[in-house]
Amino acid sequence: MIVIRNCSGLDELEACVQLQIETWGYDDSDVIPRKAFLVSQKIGGQVLGAFDTDLPGATSEGSPESMVGFAMAWPGIKTGGAQPQPYLHSHMLAVRESYRNRGLGAEIKLEQRREALSRGIRRMEWTFDPLEIKNAHLNIHKLGAVVRCYHVNFYGVSSSRLQGGLPTDRLVAEWFLDSPRVVSTLAGQPMPDSEEGVLERIQVPASIYQWKASSKGREQALAVQVENRRRFQLAFSHGLVVIAFTRDSEGNGVFELGHWTQPAQT
């Protein structure tokens, strides 16, 4: 049984730090320390843990030793509209390798959404690698986030083994938590976002993971990154937005872009 709840105490925050290192393979230059998790909690962010209560020695509420996933978010303010709006920037989501591909990542995101809405926060954002097919499928297809911003080499040099030595290009997922699009998506009934339908498709080959993990294939991965970067930037400059994500029979990922109207935030 998996319990997802707010982390409590320094030991559970330290368990988040260790799972972060286990997931991304960060060195000391990239690791988010325990005190940052603590500050996030104190200033209105989120530190949620997923605990397997069936593990030996675990309590009914979980313990640091039984943590199998976590998410950490910082609070922020969006300006530029009629009035400033609070939002959460979800900086990290990690799931222990043996618990992946079970839907746990989505469950943690849904608990983030529930907790945010309970405080009147209606928007979340996070960055993700445009070459990560599984993340794109979760963010856009399962959760109903949209994408309209591309950052080149956003974090600079990264020690993460998942980055494969490539520039840290990132897309920004925008999740409007109680919008019709998100509510319908979570109910399994995605809404059409544009009367014009899909106007652009950008593909990520299924082989990208092998290319990123190999010194011989890294040049191919970089070529895909550079070409897709160009296409995303051009599409976004023309007002297109990622409104859907699909995977074909060969496992290739396809970003689908069209026009989209941002929901009103009151």
Question: Summarize this, please?
Answer:
The chain is an alpha+beta fold and 266 residues long. The protein is 31% helix and 27% strand.
Describe this protein's structure.
- The chain is of the alpha+beta class.
- It has a single domain (2-194), classed as 3-Layer(aba) Sandwich (Aminopeptidase).
- It contains seven helices and ten strands.
- The chain has helices at 9-24, 34-42, 104-118, 133-142, 180-186, 208-213, 218-237; strands at residues 2-6, 46-52, 67-78, 85-95, 123-128, 146-151, 170-176, 200-204, 241-247, 253-258.
- The strands form two sheets. Strands 1-2-3-4-5-7-6 form a seven-stranded mixed beta sheet, sandwiched between helices.
- Helix 3 (104-118) links the parallel strand 4 and strand 5.
- Helix 1 crosses helix 2 (34-42).
- The longest helix has 20 residues, at 218-237.
In the CATH scheme, the class would be Alpha Beta
- Tell me what the CATH architecture is: 3-Layer(aba) Sandwich
pLDDT averaged residue by residue = 93
By DSSP (H or I, 4+ residues per run), the number of helices equals: 7
Any idea what the CATH superfamily is called? Gcn5-related N-acetyltransferase (GNAT)
* CA-CA gap between termini: 38 Å
Largest sheet: 7 strands, mixed
Multimeric organization: single chain
The parts where pLDDT drops under 50 for at least 5 residues are none
CATH topology, anyone?
Answer: Aminopeptidase
Major sheet: arrangement of strands: 1-2-3-4-5-7-6
Write the layout of secondary structure elements.
Blueprint: E1 2-6, H1 9-24, H2 34-42, E2 46-52, E3 67-78, E4 85-95, H3 104-118, E5 123-128, H4 133-142, E6 146-151, E7 170-176, H5 180-186, E8 200-204, H6 208-213, H7 218-237, E9 241-247, E10 253-258
Parallel strand pairs: 4-5
Antiparallel strand pairs: 1-2, 2-3, 3-4, 5-7, 6-7, 8-10, 9-10
Helix pairs in contact: 1-2
